[in-house]
Design a protein that fits this description.
This protein is an alpha+beta fold and 278 residues long. Helix content is 33%, strand content 23%. It contains 9 helices and 9 strands. The strands form 3 sheets. A 5-stranded antiparallel sheet has the order 2-1-5-4-3, sandwiched between helices. It has a two-stranded antiparallel sheet with strand order 6-7. β8 and β9 form a beta hairpin. The longest helix is centred in the N-terminal third of the chain and has 19 residues.
Length: 278
């Protein structure tokens, strides 16, 4: 199920609206929405149906750094998607404005905030939420652009408008609308002086042993942590094997039964693997 977001609201610790960004339709005013939201007793769930508004709306909330983030919708949307979108907005604001996220930072950096909100959601549809892709799309003016440019991030070549030569229409359109990166979670044109890849295998083992010494239960959980310093967008081939599957393949003599047991062994050893896009 997808999600359609109509508007985003941000309130300070004194319940005063500091930002209202409308994506589509005609959502309620920030004061009207806050009054209906506060009418529910505390603690308030992250999802509320405000039937006393016209039309009734569904509001989803996230509280971060004493700032209240509200998103409204009147459509049948997946609430987990909307909540994840609110958390992505918080992460993006902290990355571009600095942590901790304060009311003054949002007000002083409204030009950056407006670009972030426009890129992350378009006409109510969630669009680009990865921070690396947002760096290529959001222009950071002033000293922040110079700081990001010093570490090799886009947005450093901004200058005073009077000092920039006026390009042609075709070139200006390509500059103002850069192509999206091939991978949203990786910056474009990544360059490193040495191609290196560090791998750490972390494994934890939880065992319950009876007083007699007999093991009652044992659970193993592991993770593979990568620190990548590889230029461009490389192709990574990850092959996982186990000692039990190797021994069964050697004892099976290469028959069909041995190959089937290998796959079963791997399925038994790796339960619920989760891969993070990186």
């Amino acid at each position: 199920m997808s999600a359609i977001i109509e508007a985003l609201y941000i309130y300070n610790p004194h319940n005063v609206g500091i930002l209202q960004h409308i994506y589509r339709s005609r959502p309620p005013h920030s004061n009207v929405l806050l009054r209906a939201y506060l009418s529910h007793p505390s603690p308030r769930p992250p999802l509320l149906h405000l039937s006393n508004l016209s039309p009734p709306v569904i509001v989803l909330s996230v509280l971060h750094s004493n700032l209240l983030f509200l998103a409204t919708t009147t459509f049948d949307s997946d609430p987990l998607v909307v909540l994840e979108f609110l958390h992505r907005i918080v992460d993006a604001l902290e990355e571009f404005l600095g942590a901790p996220l304060l009311e003054t930072k949002i007000e002083n950096g409204y030009d950056i905030v407006a670009q972030l909100l426009a890129e992350m959601c378009d006409a109510g549809q969630i669009n680009t939420t990865e921070s690396n892709a947002l760096r290529d799309l959001v222009e950071v003016p002033g000293w922040m652009g110079k700081l990001l440019g010093g570490v090799g991030l886009p947005g450093s070549s901004l200058a005073t408008p009077s000092l920039i030569p006026q390009p042609s229409s075709s070139s200006s359109s390509s500059i103002m609308n850069p192509p999206p990166p091939q991978l949203p979670w990786r910056r474009a044109n990544v360059r490193h002086t040495s191609n290196e890849l560090y791998v750490d295998i972390i494994e934890s083992l939880n065992v319950i042993i009876a007083p007699s010494g007999r093991p009652l239960s044992a659970f193993a959980q592991g993770s593979i942590v990568f620190t990548s310093k590889i230029s461009g967008i490389p192709d990574l081939l990850l092959v996982l094997t186990s000692s039990s599957s190797s021994s069964s393949s050697s004892s099976g003599g290469g028959g069909g039964g041995g190959g089937k047991s290998n796959s079963n062994n791997i399925d038994h050893i790796l339960e619920l693997p989760v891969f993070h896009p990186c």
